Amino acid sequence: MKKICSTFLLICMVFCAAAQDISSFSLQVKAGVQLPGVYGKERDSVSMTNKTGLVAGLSAVSPISRHFVLKHDVWAAINKDQSRLDIFPISAAFRMANAELFAGPYSGILLRADNYGNGSMQSGYATKNDIGFTIGAGYTFRKKISIDVRYVRGLVTLIEDPGNKEQLKAYRQYVAVTLGYVLF
């Protein structure tokens, strides 16, 4: 019984000591530039989404321990051809000395597109929603200003031709560089 109590107390002390180093929840605004691209076997068939765009949104950080945090990002990605709401629901991040590496899932919800189709289309192309993953790195200056570089890769075919059962093997990808300001 003494061993169990000693082990329990030791675990409690370790968690209490670790809790002293954990920073609190933070929220920041971000804005930057998006450099979109297309990958896949038939990427040359798609040219509409390769225009540079802007991104702006919010990022929340939930600390787990001194070096591990969970990031939750949502931003609007806008270029000439389309607008999307890109959601990064939970990205695991490793932080050390104001630098971080992160990775997680991604979802892109189409808000506007020049060639957004409907269910009754018989020809032409329709842009679609997307899911995929993201990886990236960031750095925070003086706990208030941050810069992130993020790579996003979609796993859903980018567009479809309703008149053809075969989908184009073209997928969304982009690199985004954002500056952030920590609100709290």
Main sheet properties? 8 strands, antiparallel, barrel
Low-confidence stretches: 12-20
Give the termini distance in whole angstroms.
Answer: 45 Å
Q: What is the number of strand segments?
A: 10
**Radius of gyration from the alpha-carbon trace, in angstroms:** 21 Å
- Share in β-strands: over 45%
Structural class: mainly beta
Task: Going across the biggest sheet, name each strand in turn.
Answer: 1-2-3-4-5-7-8-10
Roughly what percent helix? 10-25%
What number is the mean pLDDT? 82
Short description:
By secondary structure, the chain is mostly beta strands. The chain has one helix at 2-21, and strands at 26-39, 53-63, 68-78, 82-96, 99-113, 126-127, 130-141, 145-157, 159-160, 171-182.
